Amino acid sequence: MDYFNDPELSGKYLGTITKDFVVVCDTLLEASSQIRKGDFSKYPIFVFAKQEVPLGGLLVNADDLNLEWHVFASYLELFVQQGIISEEGVEGFQATYKDADEFCCLFVLDKEFTKFVFVPYPED
């Protein structure tokens, strides 16, 4: 699986993801910090999906904030348990994972598109 940002992520995905990310980025940064401080994982992953998915816990309900994407909080070890990332793929994922204080790891999940994307948190 490719863990790098994909230049194909443009148009409809980039626009809607960015629009929703700006609204929820503070919540995601805080959740990322809690996941890491609570020793759940050093690798938080936030699933952006337009429908309910069994990947982590619902963090942001799109309907509540008039957004397009629901956000689920998860992390690397759960992705391995669920078979999304293979045991063999863990090292590659960890090598490409960006600083969690500066970048948010998104797993964008839609009917025709499934991809990891690292989005920088806005600077204060």
TrEMBL record:
The lineage of its organism: Bacteria, Pseudomonadati, Bacteroidota, Cytophagia, Cytophagales. It comes from Hymenobacter lapidarius. This is Uncharacterized protein. It comes from the Bacteria.
